[in-house]
């Protein structure tokens, strides 16, 4: 009983095909003690038998062609019958060199007993070859113990394969779920990043965020066009931050701010002594952008000579530092931005057409602020919160009269102008105070009012008529109060309303 339990326990230990095969070899070596033994199992394609065994006490491993029926193990697999060869004939008729050498090592005085290994369903799952003297092989064959052992092995092999298959499927399922979770998390991260840094709920703002999320996923060049101050660099940085290159450098160069004779050295770098004043080697921006993103701001102002050199770099990703006779490689994505109408510059010969097409593999048009005026309130809140955090101050709300002025203003300087205007207003507002027109210098107020009077408004930005009427009414009363230096009686008379009505409106509309 104890030996049977020990045998059963040893059978539970192997957890893969190799370990189970080694278990079978160990059992055969211990209890049958043949001159040699070989276990062949088909590999996943079924074209080969992966064989493990012993020649005496020496481990053996070889691969046999499953359809080479000139060798005994493949023949037994084909016939699915037990066969005995009383002698080996030195392996002369065997094509496989490794198997022929094994037969030679066993010697012609030994024979071969080959048995198919069935699984629980009786399906063939391998073959066993035992080398020994012919009379011993016949004795083992007639005893029937080997067939019982192989049935145990075959059934356990099926269980191990099923277990491994389930483990692989479980691993693949976990990997798929993890990939789905990672992709979902990446999408949430991208959406949060875009919402936080590209503020606005207008149709134009949502479309711009969708464009960035889509284009960020590939490595094509991107051309960003839009008016000055509209946020082209913000879009470029978001393209980088939402891309697979986010953890690599974002390198920016303003092509309009660098003198023509320095652009090449800034982009490609130089070696010591390349020109007068080159006291040491300098790495160029193209090299610094390796693995990341190279942002060419105001690319429309790049000189023609430099455009040709840039085109070659974009096509080959190779560049040559000044003073060097060797080319260097840099893997980067290029994003370009300009407020210039490049198609007109191409037509006028001021910008290379081939470079334009190379940069314009993807294109983003950043809308002007006047085209998404409904975002002004959200942008203002965002900027005011940022200024408060920076200055250590806590601001109240943006008062309606000032918001009405901002909504009526055309903002030729776009988002940058709005940000600067609110920065001035915050600087002139006390901690805890609301931000109103009185926080702005007179020259800025005059500009806002004059522009509001001159601008032909199509009112497309209005999303809430009641709110728009309140804002307009507040702006009118605030302007009239400034005109009459706070004299409410004269303001009421000029607007043909009662003083009490004016007081009520000032309280309701938060006008002071």
Automatic annotation (TrEMBL):
SMART domains: AAA. It holds the Pfam family AAA_lid_14. Residues 198-427 form the Sigma-54 factor interaction domain. Keywords: ATP-binding, DNA-binding, Nucleotide-binding, Transcription, Transcription regulation. It comes from the Bacteria. SUPFAM superfamilies: GAF domain-like (SSF55781), Homeodomain-like (SSF46689), P-loop containing nucleoside triphosphate hydrolases (SSF52540). InterPro entries: AAA+_ATPase, AAA_lid_NorR, Homeodomain-like_sf, P-loop_NTPase, Sigma_54_int, Sigma_54_int_dom_ATP-bd_1, Sigma_54_int_dom_ATP-bd_2, Sigma_54_int_dom_CS. PANTHER family: PTS-DEPENDENT DIHYDROXYACETONE KINASE OPERON REGULATORY PROTEIN-RELATED (PTHR32071:SF117), TRANSCRIPTIONAL REGULATORY PROTEIN (PTHR32071). This is Sigma-54-dependent Fis family transcriptional regulator. It comes from Siccibacter colletis. The lineage of its organism: Bacteria, Pseudomonadati, Pseudomonadota, Gammaproteobacteria, Enterobacterales.
